[in-house]
Amino acid sequence: MAKLQAEKLRNFINGEWQDVARTTAVLNPATGEEIVQVPLSSGEQVDKAVFAAKNAQKEWALVPAPQRAEVLYRVGYLMKERKERLSQLLTSENGKVIEEARGEVQEGIDMAFYMAGEGRRLFGQTTPAELKDKFAMSQRVPVGVIGIITPWNFPIAIATWKSFPAIVSGNAVVWKPATETPIMAFELAKIFEEAGLPKGVLNVVFGSGNEVGNALVNHEKVQVISFTGSNDVGREIAAVCGRQLKKVSLEMGGKNAVIVMDDADIDLAVEGILWSAFGTSGQRCTACSRVITHEQVKATLETRLLAKMEELTIGNGLDETIKVGPIINDRGLAKIEEYIQIGKEEGAKLLAGGHALKEGAKQNGNYFAPTLFTDVSSTMRIAQEEIFGPVVSLIPVKSFEEAIEVNNSVSFGLSSSIFTNDVNRVFRAQRDLDTGIVYVNAGTTGAEIHLPFGGTKGTGNGHRDSGVQALDVFTEWKAIYVDYSGKLQRAQIDID
Ligand code: UN1
């Protein structure tokens, strides 16, 4: 297949494609080559986008929801038609292997059709009223202008989790995508334009967190911020939103574990660990970075896992035979290297990997060898902090109870998994694991879009992306009372 060329990137504000003077290079993490320049906008562009969104939202909210949904159906079909193009471009800018890129685009397509269906639901509630000849109901209403800030690791899927429910429920959106992966945002905006979304309902402003992100979060006309990204940035955003009484939804990562019990199917567990720890080179919020293993199966698990890790092919994800792609950039690579050093100093035993790969065709890419530490104790930093790379820490435990305790000992709470064939352990684990997502006999990744995505503790602030629950972020509840008695009836007082 001929190499796809990314088009010149421009902001999308009020239905117009606008150039910005300042730009910076977007590099392909697999090769180090420049793919395209991304605009570096300022607060002024954010202001224009918010103004456009505010104007457009008034009309958009009046369009019946089933008609708003028609746009999303068209978006879904266009994404489907362009699935291969989008996937190739996604691999070029993000590095994830093509199979996973196709999976991510599919997540976006699924989200389009799922949320389009909400156009005919958006259920409210009718309730009995206290008084005679009185009708009571509660209804979801749009909030207004939504600011969306998305990360580079799932540049299209996460954007669809946020923008689709926001748009179908009658809001307008200003979206700041990650500067590392702007092509997906540009392509999605083009699709929305072609699908006939009225101008101003979706606006894309490219630029840094310091300028564009800050301006968006601080803008007084933006009523909701939906953010996925790092814990540090999330906390800063929450502080601003707290002061402004702005609703904020935060999704900020995990320290997800696979638990392998003594009765588990070990080969299945190895497959689960491989896929969720080294897929996307460990750069998922849901990636497995801890394996909590019963000491009785530790040796077998280590041997079989190491053997399978050796079979992993590492390289440019556009090559269909590659299983592990590059790390997003130098900073990501440096962070992983730092944690390898920390792990060694903490006394963990390095069984495989632990270094960058810079030979042959990999010379200019940011590759890192799949890494396994063993004899890790749960208090070590490598077992507590998010590394965001292909690094797994194996923690031996003596019992099911200890496994649960170790799983729950981290400050994050996104995803967890247990491999066991004991039905009692299955049910106890799904109850006692304290994460927002729990898997049984599967790895920690692979959440489906019609279920709520998010976690407990330091992972977020209680809101959920995707699933019907995402609507709670983008709508307010309105209580409506209609008195048809023809007289003034006083609630609480005129009850006999
Ligand atoms: C993320 O890493 O932020 O469950 C999203 C999964 C994917 C989404 C991950 N469906 O791994």
Automatic annotation (TrEMBL):
Q: Which domain of life is it from?
A: Bacteria
- Which InterPro entries does the record associate with it? Ald_DH/histidinol_DH, Ald_DH_C, Ald_DH_CS_CYS, Ald_DH_CS_GLU, Ald_DH_N, Aldehyde_DH_dom, ALDH7A1-like
The Aldehyde dehydrogenase domain is annotated at: 22-480
Where along the chain is the active site annotated?
Answer: E251
Q: Give the record's keywords alphabetically.
A: NAD, Oxidoreductase
Instruction: List the PANTHER family hit by this protein, alphabetically.
Output: ALPHA-AMINOADIPIC SEMIALDEHYDE DEHYDROGENASE
Name-wise, this protein is aldehyde dehydrogenase (NAD(+))
Give the organism's phylogenetic lineage.
Bacteria, Bacillati, Bacillota, Bacilli, Bacillales
